[in-house]
Amino acid sequence: MKRGYQKSSPYFFRLIKIALALTVLALMALAALVPAPLQEQADLARVPNPVKSAWFLLWIQELVSYSKYLVYLVLALTVGFIVLPWLSRSPQHQGACWFPRESRVVCCVALATCVAVLALTLVAMCCRGANWQFVSPF
Amino acid sequence: MIKDFLKHLFPRAVLQRNLTLSYTLCLGGVAFTCLMLLAASGLLLLFYYQPAPAAAYPSILLLESSVWGGRYLRSLHRLASHFFLVLIVLHTLRVILTGAYQKPRELNWLVGCALLLLAVFEGYTGYLLPMDQLALWATQTGMELLHIMPLGGALRAALVPDGVGEPASLLRFYVLHILMIPGALFFLSGLHFYRIRKNKGVLPYL
């Protein structure tokens, strides 16, 4: 075995097995505690107020509630992240690391985007009442 | 035989540093585990679900009230889908914050982006299937969001030719959710893993 290398079996496979087992067990235990919601049968004549999208799209709904043109910001961010390898400079450091010096701007933009998405989702989820009016979550 | 096949999916030896959990946090692998759990639980749900507007909701009621473990199975599927989305986003964030998207890994970054977008689309198509009030109006709102995007009108017409929750649209969401998007997700996941091997492991620049 070359220096610095380890056989996949058992070292790598053991890690995979442990991660797989822990994930499955955690999800199976949580599923017993958190039942899936089921409301009344769908009826187009009964419109709820407010109408909210799926939780993972709520941040976009909140954003476009300020201006529909903000949807272009969502598209620009999506395209920007897709072409990220061609926008940023090539790495200069030798080893893998968190927050590499030459990608600091990209890291900050990514973190800011995540915080913004999370904040918008929470506002839409907890602070929007009838007619999409702002209401206190408490 | 399965054991031998799985062994051939991975390299015979790995760099010791590649096994460092503090770098990858196992997020991609755990997300893929969720995808496998989703496939397994979804396959079982298929035995009871009926993709027709009048029959979908009663089939869920039947599953929850008369099938042993039916309510639990649905909860597991829903929870695994939430975790899948969250984990795939966290994995993407980890890739950005560690610079692992950079050349020569740009192709795998594109595959990962496609996986993330497909995961969101998979979650969205699955949202409608129970055909309760939450499902109908969340999907309807999603369609309104799509409509204000460029080319959104054409996409909406293709996805929902007869209105959200009507027979053709429910059937399209169903086929997309159980066949086409999962097929693409598993294919791209395979390509993702292959590219990791091709790029000599999960850690860049080593």
Automatic annotation (TrEMBL), chain A:
Coiled coil: none annotated. One of its GO terms (molecular function) is electron transfer activity. It comes from the Bacteria. Keywords: Membrane, Transmembrane, Transmembrane helix. The chain crosses the membrane at residues 66-84, 105-125. The keyword Cytoplasm does not apply. GO terms for cellular component: membrane. This is Cytochrome b6. It comes from Geomonas paludis.
TrEMBL record, chain B:
GO terms for biological process: respiratory electron transport chain. The lineage of its organism: Bacteria, Pseudomonadati, Thermodesulfobacteriota, Desulfuromonadia, Geobacterales. Pfam families: Cytochrom_B_N_2 (PF13631). Keywords: Membrane, Transmembrane, Transmembrane helix. Residues 1-205 form the Cytochrome b/b6 N-terminal region profile domain. This is Cytochrome b N-terminal domain-containing protein. One of its GO terms (molecular function) is oxidoreductase activity. InterPro entries: Cyt_b/b6_N, Cytb/b6-like_sf, Di-haem_cyt_TM. Coiled coil: none annotated.
